[in-house]
Amino acid sequence: MRMLATRLAVLLCLAAFPAFAQLSVHGQLVYDNAVQPGGRYAGSFLVRNDSDTPRDVLVQQHDFKLESDTVALVTPPATHRRSNAGWVVVTPSRFTVAPGETQRVDYEIAVPRDIKGAPPEGSYRSLIAVSELPAETSHRRMYSLIADAGVPVSDRDVRQSVQIATHIAGTGVTDLTFLGVDVRDENGMHVMTADVENTGDVVIEPSIWVELYSASGDLVERRQAEPTRLYPGDSLRHRLPLDTLGAGIYEALIVVDAGGDNIFGAQYTLDLNTW
User: Fold this and answer.
1) Nearest CA among 194, 207, 222, 191 for reference residue 258
2) Is beta strand 2-3 parallel, antiparallel or unpaired with respect to 263-271?
3) What is the bridge-based pairing of β-strands 73-75 and 207-213?
């Protein structure tokens, strides 16, 4: 065990997940592909109009990053150091879909042989977002606004997104860093927060649990979090309610199992005598 002492909520689609009863993306939440440098691959998903009127649709690419104190940070494409947006071609990017009908959206990825003189390694990702163009806005004006801004006209117009992940086969290092532990008051409830960051260069989906021990060494609390996909550079915050604990000194053991031999741990002392 190794001991290591702005924002927009992204709506990620599940298969046939409805979006405000208007548009739905039929496909996977995440598209994973393992390839070699210089390799190519393609895929597709469907966009369905679940309303009773025609819908004008815009498909855009974005970069995204999970941060411990937010849901997600969405940025323009090809700006994140682990972005594959510049490798992706999406067609069509604009279309009209009739009531009850579907439109297939295709994407093709060409992985470069090198990035700044070195072969790519590890995991890269980006987001393909499906938006509805407001009916009251003319196509010409809307497309002009989009071209100028390079982002969706309004955050509320973003309906659904799919993650496109590219993994360079047989490369990359798994690593993780504990960013710290804090005890805070959240809406009148005492909560311990533990922040961790994927500091490696491959995607992980770790199992995380926290064990709290009394000063005498007795286990008084154990809580496990739901696994969360973390790309390189992503971080998350694990919350553990503490209202069942009395005042005292506790030892917190945080364990992160990132798969295989990649198990990380950290121990912190919590002083709850000030409660």
Assistant:
1) 207
2) parallel
3) unpaired
Tokens 């970069």 found at: 63
Block residue for tokens 């709850």: 272
Weakest-pLDDT range from 61-65, 185-189, 202-206 = 185-189
Q: Is 80 exposed, middle or buried (0-12, 13-18, 19+ CB in 10 A)?
A: buried
Q: What is the DSSP letter of 72?
A: -
Mean pLDDT of the chain: 83
Using CA atoms, how far residue 142 sits from 109, 158, 170, 264, in Å, is 27, 14, 44, 49
Q: Which amino acid is at 232?
A: P
**pTM (2 d.p.):** 0.81
Query: Do residues 230 and 163 lie in contact, with contact meaning Cβ atoms separated by under 8 Å?
Result: no
Three-state DSSP state, 156: helix
Burial of 212 (0-12, 13-18, 19+ CB in 10 A): buried
Which residues make beta-bridge pairs with 195? 180, 237
Residue 205 Cα distances to 34, 123, 127, 218, angstroms? 16, 13, 18, 30
For the chain, give the longest Cα–Cα distance. Answer: 71
